[in-house]
Every structure is written in C-alpha cells, then in structure tokens.
Amino acid sequence: MKGDDIAASVVAEALEWVGTPYRHQGSRKGVGCDCLGLLLGVWREIYGRELDRPGPYAPDWAEATEQERLLDGLRKHMPEKPVAAIAAGDLIVFRWRPHLPAKHAAILTEPDCFVHAYQDHGVTLTRLVPQWRRRIAAVFAFPNPT
Predict the structure, then answer these.
(1) How far, in Å, CA of 42 to CA of 37, rounded?
(2) Under a CB-based contact definition with an 8 Å cutoff, are residues 101 and 70 in contact?
C-alpha cells in the first residue's frame, strides 16, 4: 500500500469511529475510546496488529509528569512531518496550553476537519479552526506497511 492509499484508509476508518462514546483508556469502535484509543483502534484496523500500549494512565498524566510521553512514543512508530505539510490521513497532536506537554490526538480527514475522541462528546468530527490550529504540537504520517 502506498502513502496515498494509507491516508485514504486512515480517513475512512477514522470516520467509522464517529459516534463512539468517550471512555478513558478504551479503544473499541462503537463501544468506547479516548483520543489515544482512537489512534490505537485505527492503527489496529489498518495494520492488523497492535501499536505499543502506554500502560495505565490517569486523565491528568501530562500535567502530573510534565514529560512529552505522547510525542516521544509516537516518534518511535510514525514519521513526523512539518505542520505546514499537514494532509488528510495525518495524526495531529495538540497541546492544551503552551507550557504543558502535548496530550490530545486526532486524525485529519479533510484540510479543515478532524476526528477525535473528546471527553463528554465521544468521537466527533470537528472543524480545524484557528483556536485548534494554534494548539498543534506535532503532525505525524501513518507509515507504509512493512
């Protein structure tokens, strides 16, 4: 599968998760997931295997540890790309505040829309408006299967 095929598959799979309830540490389509669980579930469907799991984590893990655990973990499995090169099928990682570690992940489905699991809302399609764009900490491409 080529990069364009991967991106199209990622977008199609991510859109299938819309409506899944929010569940901290969940990763099951239609049952429940958080933002990391959305990534884990899409990865599982696209690649037919599990991505390394982070182990148990509290909702405030980023604030408590002050470590870039999410970015560091993603860099082991996915190529990072410039924010300016963002494209449909990419994983976007956000910071809630400039001084805090990045802790929210989403999948871009169109130039101005993304799918993410959002507490109290579940998996939803959201516009990539300026307030979200300002929070982008990193962008990753889903790798070609090996």
Answers:
(1) 8
(2) yes
Amino acid at 37: G
Which residues are 86's β-sheet partners? none
pLDDT at 132: 97
Residue 95 structure tokens: 């910071």
Q: 118 near 19, Cβ under 8 Å?
A: no
> What's the pTM?
0.91
Model confidence band, residue 68 (pLDDT cutoffs 50, 70, 90): confident
Please provide residue 129's backbone torsions phi and psi, each rounded to the nearest 5 degrees: -80, 170
**Alpha carbons 13 and 99: distance in angstroms, whole number:** 32
Query: How many residues comprise the chain?
Result: 146
CA distances 10 to 41, 103, 109, 114, Å, are 11, 20, 8, 12
Token representation of residue 133: 């764009």
